[in-house]
Write a structure and sequence with these properties.
By secondary structure, the chain is mainly α. The chain has one domain. Helix content is 70%, strand content 4%. It has 13 helices and four strands. Strands 1-2 form a two-stranded antiparallel ribbon. Strands 3-4 form a two-stranded antiparallel sheet. Helix 5 packs across helix 6. The radius of gyration is 18 Å and the shape is globular.
Length: 317
Amino acid sequence: MPTALTSAAALVIALIITPIVRMYGHRFGLLDEPGGRKIHSVPVPRLGGIAMAIAFGIAIGLAALFWNDLGATLGLRPNRAPAILAGVSLLLAVGIIDDTRGMRAFVKLACQIGAAVLAFSLGLSLERFHFPWGILDLGPFALPITVAWIVGVINAVNLIDGLDGLASAVVLTVLGAFGLIAVTDGAHPTLFITAATAGAAAGFLAYNLHPASIIMGDTGAMFLGFVVAAIGISLTQDSVTPQAPWVPIIALGVPILDTAWAVVRRTARGEPFFRADRGHIHHQLLRIGFSQRDAMLSLTAVSGGLAILAVVLGRLE
């Protein structure tokens, strides 16, 4: 029950805060201009990630203040929540700078790596892979694999953020799967973080559906990407029945496949990976005649199906 109330609080706060953030985006000219891989034809405020972060932070604060269950849940060991919150805080600062002043791609990548290393140093790490046939201890490879996973998921969510509502909706399907898997443990340190993130994303989505009046920007994409990457780590390491590595990979199948295709496509053309293009899955759907809304709903449905598959596989472990 407290988990549901945390999600509801984040949802209501996001619904209230997002229009205020949108107003300031217009007032200070912090607008995302059309062009490149972007679909929108008019400038749109790009500060939606700030609204989500505010809703997330307030909801977590309210949970800590009013519900003793949060203290009991976060008292479980190992507890990855402090590492997740530290990484989120660093990336929010990076995202705000990028969305308001701009940031070179390699500088942003370095900051993402720094956030992943910070989280690792605080205990958020892929130390072993649990398979049905045994356990693989990662040993000295724990750090590079953890960093690669976190940075990869952050950028996968960023790349799928090419249609109104798409990234938010896809992440909500992933969070739904992760939440259902975590609930099977009875209590899990990431449940409140999952709930607050889902509520914040859902509240923001109300304003991000086509035609979007605000977009999440890199602040939102990095926030959502880091959280789902971190929860995926926790589920594979900390659950009563730790999940096999393919469970979070399947749940994140849509952004991961889109990113893999982008790497292959741009490498084949000899183009830098960070150069925006219109070759993503959602662009292909638009090219064959889908409307923006239909393309978003179709990819969300696929992501939902993969999320269900991930839950089923997780229950079979």
